[in-house]
User: Which sequence fits this backbone?
């Protein structure tokens, strides 16, 4: 009777008999198929590429993944048809090296996060394999900024002078400080590397000339 029960349950339990007149039954474990990693094509990072975020955790089971953007206005992520990925700088080691291409099917806002899906990512395992990867987008895919609006990346490296033409430094960073943004300038004085901060508001900024890579401000060196 026990043998009959086991025979009926064998397909369900994953059992197989040992050979012999009075077969004994042993269990075996079927090893799951190895999760397939996304097949990503090698690419050359565009000269105008901008790092805009990184890939976060998998979202759902159909290959969607979350994005951790570096900007509070990540419109470029929604519009760029291709993202360039590079391995994570921290955390688990990425399965790929160098720069690879990710073809985006859709990127959109969901609740308080951004989620995306790509041609090369078929399931949750594939999405998890990309976790931590750095995302770069060609500057050419950024939406056109409105008049008197600028992308942070376009301001980095610009020289800043005041109305009298006195050099105040070069923009090295921007800080969101409440309702406004602050320019962080790098400059030297007596051989020492220093920083100067100027609010990026019309009260102090007279002109931004990205073509000339120059910002003119109403500011004095001793402020």
Assistant:
């Amino acid at each position: 009777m026990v043998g009959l029960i086991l025979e009926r349950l064998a397909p369900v339990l994953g059992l197989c008999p040992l050979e012999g007149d009075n077969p004994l039954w042993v269990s075996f474990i079927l090893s799951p198929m190895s999760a397939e990693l996304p097949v990503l094509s090698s690419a050359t990072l565009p000269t105008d590429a901008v790092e805009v975020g990184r890939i976060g955790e998998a979202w759902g089971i159909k290959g969607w993944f979350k994005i951790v953007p570096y900007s509070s206005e990540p419109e470029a992520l929604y519009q760029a048809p291709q993202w360039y990925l590079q391995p994570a700088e921290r955390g688990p080691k990425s399965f790929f090296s160098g720069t690879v291409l990710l073809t985006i099917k859709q990127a959109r806002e969901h609740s308080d996060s951004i989620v995306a899906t790509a041609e090369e990512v078929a399931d949750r395992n594939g999405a998890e394999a990309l976790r931590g990867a750095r995302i770069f987008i060609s500057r050419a895919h950024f939406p056109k900024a409105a008049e008197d609006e600028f992308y942070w990346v376009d301001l980095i490296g610009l020289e800043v002078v005041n109305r009298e033409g006195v050099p105040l430094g070069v923009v090295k960073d921007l800080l969101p400080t409440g309702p406004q943004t602050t320019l962080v300038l790098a400059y030297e004085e007596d051989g020492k590397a220093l920083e100067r901060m100027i609010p990026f508001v019309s009260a102090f900024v007279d002109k931004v000339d990205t073509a000339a890579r120059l910002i003119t401000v109403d500011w004095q060196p001793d402020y």
User: Anything to note?
Assistant: The CA atoms of residues 152 and 174 lie 7 Å apart.
